[in-house]
Amino acid sequence: MATEQTNQPAQQQMQTEELQIVFVGDIMLDKSVGAQIAKHGVDYPFQKTATILQQADLTIGNLETSVSTRGKAEPKEFAYRSKPETLKGLANAGFDVVNLANNHSLDYGMDALFDTIQHLETNQIAWVGAGKNEAEAFAPYLTTIKGKRIAVIGLSRVLPNRQWFAGKNKPGLAHAYTDEPMLTYVKKASEVADITIAVMHWNLEYKDVPEPYARAMARKLIDSGVDAVVGSHSHSVMGIEFYKDAPIYYSVGNFVFTTSYNPKGREAIMVKLAFADQDQGIKTSVIPVKIVNGQPVPLDAAGKKRMIEKLNQISFDAKVDADGVVTKK
Hints:
- The protein is an alpha/beta fold.
- It has a single domain (18-328), classed as 4-Layer Sandwich (Purple Acid Phosphatase, chain A, domain 2).
- The chain contains nine helices and 20 strands.
- It has helices at residues 10-14, 31-40, 50-55, 87-93, 109-122, 134-138, 182-191, 212-223, 301-314, and strands spanning 19-27, 58-63, 66-67, 81-82, 97-99, 126-128, 130-131, 141-145, 148-156, 172-173, 195-201, 228-232, 240-243, 246-249, 254-256, 267-275, 282-292, 295-298, 318-320, 325-328.
- A hairpin with a 2-residue loop joins strand 17 (282-292) and strand 18 (295-298).
- The relative contact order is 0.14.
């Protein structure tokens, strides 16, 4: 896990070091992925991407499953519950923080959610988007790396019902169905951080473009102090947009997931965000991957070219060059 760095010499502090953050999409360690882990070991899902994940100063993903041996499945089409030992693979791959604000964290009830949190803590992986009450669910993950204070906040606009919402005295998940209390917590996070990242679970499945509400919400988040918005849930890659020079990735697709019947569910991107100083702004780029037997694999040259062409077709005011570097048009 990323740790506070406060003992750098003054001369080193003056030299601006680039801070690199990597974000990936949905991680689900149950069903056929769980079977692959049982056969090949906990590191199997990340064998082709661990080097990229480990090189980042901060690595973030969306944990699309409860992690427990307890609970009863919710009456929904897909309910996921992964074995506790599977989280060791995330830790070994370099994950620092995961978002729990999504439509699967409560698949096996509240006890399983708190087991998930306990197992993450055991593996030294931080979490956002869930908690014993509203304040904890909306609380950011805070850390200082290379002299920069970073806040990560997790939010979901796709929850099965209001019973999943965290309340003032009620456990649950951080929801984005109303501006408040969401924006108040986002502003509080941004006030204590140099860099604020909003991790969003939103939009419709297998679509190329975001819902109008998502575009409006991204702007409100950025107006409230967020420096980058990165989304998931749709099981597809969506377009990219900039607002006030802040990048918005509406969906990066799956990452570790079962093999989808839909080709869109088998393609994804890893997102890199690089922060140096305020004058240079945020540098960002993508690494296209495909999901093969539950394992994300970087695409070959032809596949990368096709994904970049697709991103350029479905993005708004963003363009992606042949190396995956994303800039504002």
